[in-house]
Design a protein that fits this description.
elongated
Length: 107
């Protein structure tokens, strides 16, 4: 995966797709992927009913995009927060699934 990235980037230049490497293309793609991540966490909220992971994901997403214009450390911190939001959401969803299966088994 990581070893093939330089070859893939060089191939973009060979095929004339260097526009894919510009900030004008990459920043909207980053924003879209962050919105997708926040949307997935929002959909998972139905399982556990908590807003915390979604709010953290939205704050982290906004900070990541804003950090592109401020400092790279802001982007790194925001991505760490987004990972934390996803882990938090997973744990809440997993705990809810375990609780549901325990309730079903006791019925």
């Amino acid at each position: 995966c990581c070893l093939g990235m330089p070859v893939a980037l060089a191939a973009l230049g060979v095929f004339g797709a260097t526009f894919l490497l510009t900030d004008a293309f990459l920043i909207p793609m980053l924003a879209l992927s962050l919105m997708l991540s926040a949307f997935i966490i929002f959909r998972q909220r139905r399982r556990h009913g908590r807003w915390g992971p979604f709010v953290l994901a939205v704050v982290a997403s906004v900070a990541a995009v804003a950090g592109l214009f401020v400092h790279s450390a802001v982007v790194i911190g925001a991505i760490v927060l987004l990972v934390a939001a996803n882990i938090w959401d997973y744990r809440l969803g997993h705990a809810g699934a375990i609780g549901e299966s325990a309730e079903a088994a006791s019925s």
